[in-house]
Design goal:
Length: 407
């Protein structure tokens, strides 16, 4: 007797018998996912999360998971004839995402709240809700791909469109979560998605992209953090990597690693923020050469590659990594030293900021597989010492600061 063939979601059952919960943010991507799966005959239920309510933010163009977006998701569900529920996750979102975002900034880091939101609220709390209502899968509008591996697990892969790939924000997905998740847009471009939205007559077909950080009105990170953590606006010194005090600042929350403008320093050589010392309330600046990093250590390591994280080869594993969402994967070596993940970047990277993610792939090519990743720890002080002495991280003398900064 032949085995039951797999449906388009890789499950051995008829679409009509497959219950799918679609996480509907109110944008065009998740709306098209709901329409596609409904059109394919699946038993689709839409769920929208009410995550925050920050007054003007809920009406802001590009906001998500609040106000107008909930209304848009409901309209799409009505158009498709599917059940739709709105779940109030404001308290959970504040605790798991907003509070951690503020605390990370206070520690001198540059956090990525989207990673934490996906890892906790969307792919943990929402998934439990999906299981409770009998769903077989949870589908989202992310531009990533997942495929069955030879051992029956699912692997996470970069999207076909590298300009839309969102694996950087999903590296912390666990294997059990990945096995239940589906990403129908992984093989599409944004223009193809919008064309489908028009085909299905969805009112959100021309809706603009959502912002990465949905809960920060007008990008005012410092204002939000100061409101949540009044102690955040502690003034301190702006210090050159060679130890000279160059000026004063009114709070490290107004600065990020790699920043050049808005330092409040008069004339002289072009300077960049190379580190933030929260304990001393110092903004540390230096020439562009001081931004180059060749090694980073990771904390809160996630691993969805083959085998166990503990079983890495003694000499390390050749991989490709991304230390910024806007950068392509670059060659690196992943090692495990005393239980800590360490990444050696083959060509070095500028502006590596603590708190950002380092996402690990099995290669640098299109549709590469995600092996895992972690949070970048604070830049080692020895790197700053090298910069102050004029040495490169590889031990060679650094070029003249003015010439390098102007390159």
């Amino acid at each position: 007797m032949s085995a039951t063939p797999l449906n388009s979601l890789d499950l051995p059952m008829a679409p009509r018998d497959t219950r799918v919960v679609v996480a509907m943010s109110g944008g065009v991507d998740s709306s098209v996912v709901a329409a596609l799966l409904k059109d394919q005959g699946y038993d689709v239920t839409g769920v929208t999360l009410q995550l925050y309510d920050h007054g003007a933010a809920v009406h802001r163009k590009g906001a998500c998971c609040a106000g107008q977006d909930i209304h848009d998701a409901r309209r799409v569900a009505d158009r498709l004839g599917i059940p739709h529920y709105v779940l109030d996750y404001e308290d959970r979102f504040r605790e798991a995402v907003i509070d951690r975002f503020a605390d990370s900034y206070l520690a001198g880091e540059t956090p990525i709240p989207c990673v934490e939101c996906n890892r906790t609220v969307k792919f943990a709390d929402l998934m439990r809700t999906a299981v409770d209502i009998g769903a077989h899968v949870l589908a989202t509008g992310h531009y990533v791909s997942s495929r069955l591996l030879p051992d029956g697990r699912r692997g996470l892969f970069r999207a076909a469109d590298p300009d839309k790939d969102q694996t950087y924000f999903l590296y912390a997905t666990t294997q059990p979560q990945l096995d239940m998740l589906r990403f129908p847009l992984g093989g599409m471009t944004k223009s193809q998605t919008r064309e489908l939205a028009r085909h299905y007559g969805l009112a959100v077909a021309e809706k603009s992209e959502s912002q990465d950080i949905c809960f920060v009105p007008n990008g005012g990170y410092a204002d939000l953090i100061r409101k949540l953590r009044p102690e955040a606006a502690t003034p301190g010194d702006v210090v050159h990597v060679d130890g000279r005090v160059l000026g004063r600042h009114d709070g490290i929350i107004r600065f990020t690693v790699g920043q050049r403008r808005g330092l409040g320093l008069a004339g002289g050589e072009p300077l960049y923020v190379v580190a933030l010392d929260a304990a001393r309330a110092q903004v540390i600046v230096g020439p562009r050469t001081a931004l180059l990093t060749r090694r980073v250590k990771l904390r809160d390591m996630s691993w969805i590659g083959d085998g166990a994280w503990d079983d890495l080869p003694a000499g390390g594993l050749d991989v490709a990594v991304r230390v910024r969402s806007t950068r392509a994967p670059a060659p690196a070596v992943l090692r495990r030293r005393d239980g800590v993940a360490e990444v050696e970047l083959a060509a070095g990277e500028e502006g590596v900021a603590p708190g950002q993610a380092c996402v690990i792939y099995d290669g640098a090519g299109p549709e590469a597989r995600v092996l895992g990743g972690g949070v970048i720890s604070r830049a080692p002080r020895e790197a700053l010492a090298d910069a102050a002495s004029g040495a490169r991280p590889d031990g060679r003398p650094a070029p003249a600061a003015g010439r390098q900064a102007g390159a």
